[in-house]
Amino acid sequence: MENKLTYSEFQEHLLQAVRQELKTQGSYQCELTHNQKNNVESAGLIIRQEDHVIAPVFYLEKAYQSFLAGMPLQQISRELVEAYQEQVLPEVDLPDLTDYEKIKDRLRVRLVNRENNQSYYKQGPYKLHPMGAEVLYIDLENQGTERMSIQVKTIMAERWGKPEAELFGTALENTQDHEKVSFCSMNEALQELLAEEPMVAPLEESPMYVLSNETRKFGATVLLYPEVAKQIRDKIGKDYYILPSSIHECIILPKEKGMLSVKELRDMVWEINQSQVLPEEVLGNEVYEFRDTVAKVKKCSKEERER
User: Fold this and answer.
1) Beta strands in the chain (DSSP E)
2) Average pLDDT, the chain
């Protein structure tokens, strides 16, 4: 039966169905892709009109679940083509990626997961960090409200002929200039989220803080900025733990007597990552700390976690 296709077989059958659907509608290219993103590899279908520079990727996990639930392959194909035709593709200012002088101002750095993610971050230059891996990106500006970016691959960096230290230094400076730090109490963050909700009960005071950037996109990266970790310590007046909420933000928890143990905090981080954070947005399952006497971010030791 058709609905007994494996995921791999489904992808091939859907590709042929979409090609057939587009056959009478113009000149299109259609192909399968497997994109390695933070922590996960996703199968997708690319549809490109021949005179367009960019093309959307339609990821297929949900489509396959619909197929297994009984939706006919032809209906899935038709809906996918309709979705492609309804969207407005942005006009992207695509630079010459081989010319370092043209792209150096677009370089950015991100902090991503490294625990189960080597095939992703090792596609290009990277630096290991106590909380993950630092990865280089090129920011692609466009004329709409959305922003696009691509990871710097090894072959790109080799063509530029620049030392990796220079690339990461430039990327960090650019990122600091374009992604300002956002640091607020947990109560302030929740009040911002609930601002539009009517009749919200007063929030209990929370000892925690939220660290991110102003766009809330890859906000954990601000921990790479020089002096940020020390500035937080100066602001709250205490050493603190760092809980990696996601690649977009971290929770700052001042150290207090009678608080949860590091092991309990680590269990909490793991549980939240499993139940509330998308796999591609998980930063890590460990707990980190900043102590004024050490003056740097470090992972809590095994002895501390177990105690």
Assistant:
1) 28-37, 40-49, 57-59, 107-112, 126-129, 132-140, 148-151, 181-185, 209-213, 240-246, 249-254, 288-290, 297-299
2) 85
